[in-house]
Amino acid sequence: MQIRIKRVYAAPSDDDGARILVDRLWPRGLTKTGVNFKLWAKELAPSHELRKWFKHAPDNWQEFKRRYKKELNGHIESVETLLKDFGDRDITLLYSAKDEQHNQAMVLSEYMKAILKKKS
After folding, report:
1. What is the DSSP letter of 105?
2. Which residues contact 36 (CB under 8 A, 6 or more apart)?
């Protein structure tokens, strides 16, 4: 299984596999029929409080990662179910943030890869 990340505004590609939106809020300017996605996993997105605190400020990045992983620990069963449901299929985590280096999809991808590594 490959886990990729991509902005939801980028065009889909053949190697995306199952496209999973990981934002809590629907991306601005897009319609649900205009986004090619398999699943909207908003329960795995950062909480409203954490998202507002982070503000996509690079200075907050390390603390955001720590807090978000702590939140994900509370949803470990959902993450494991998602990984199980997609099996060996590739997935692409979709996010809407402009910052391609500091966003929840990067953290979630890292978290998911760590779970897969433990199971292998």
Report:
1. H
2. 12, 19
Give the bridge partners for 93, in sequence order. Answer: 5, 20
Across-strand partners of 18?
A: 91
Q: Average pLDDT for consecutive 10-residue bins of the chain (120 residues)? A: 96 94 94 90 96 93 97 96 93 96 97 92
d(CA 31, CA 14): 21
Task: Report how far residue 43's alpha carbon sits from residue 50's, in angstroms, rounded to the nearest whole number.
Answer: 13
Q: Is this prediction's pTM over 0.85?
A: yes
Give, as one character, the DSSP assignment of residue 23. Answer: -
The CA-atom distances, in angstroms, between 38 and each of 5, 65, 70 are 14, 26, 26
Residue 105: closest CA among 4, 34, 36: 4
The secondary structure element, H or E, covering residue 91 is: strand 91-95
Beta strands in 27-106 (DSSP E): 39-40, 91-95
Q: Can you tell me which residue has the tokens 């065009």? A: 11
List Cβ neighbours of 63 (8 Å cut-off, separation of 6 or more).
none
